[in-house]
Amino acid sequence: MEPVRLRDDVVDLTAPTTADVDAVTALCQDPDIQAWTTVPSPYARADAEWFVATLVGDGWDAGTQCTWGVRVDGDLVGMVGLTPGPVRSAEVGYWLGPQARGRGLLHRSLHLVLTYGFAPAGLGLERVEWRCVAGNWASWRAAWRVGFTFEGTVRGGAIQRGRRRDEWMGTLLRGDLREPSRDWPATTIPAPSPPRG
After folding, report:
1. Taking the model in full, what pTM does it have?
2. Class of domain 6-188
3. How far is CA 93 from CA 9, 19, 45, in A?
4. Dihedrals φ, ψ of 45, to 5°?
């Protein structure tokens, strides 16, 4: 499968390459990225080299992982990916560097990726699943803004560096609106301190 470029008038999504290794290394030093994702911690340049060559490169080649670097004015500021699953499904994952947050860039990127994922000429998906470590309100807000329905908390459902964490999950079906359709039960979900280490 060849990498696909997605863009609008602000964000440009392309597959990360070896030219991005230093930028990925720098971005993944962010404490929030390390706290809420499964990237290695501490994060070394060798981790970025593996990510670009193996996860991204081999993933696109085999059709097992579609990963886009989020670029603004030519600068890499984050990642968005779809991991295809059985029966026209996929799981979405994403992160942004601190300088890119709060500017609507992730919202734009998710719209592009989901539109491609659900399109018959794209991946032809019927269902996309979102998961995050419970307490990751930034991830929750991004998923909610593009129409995901909150399905619940899975106790011990996430594995982060060999440790089990509770996780939140939601779903988006092809025919769902790409905007908030209902309130999520935010007031009933505890907001623990972010996991460290």
Report:
1. 0.91
2. alpha beta
3. 22, 22, 21
4. -60, -35
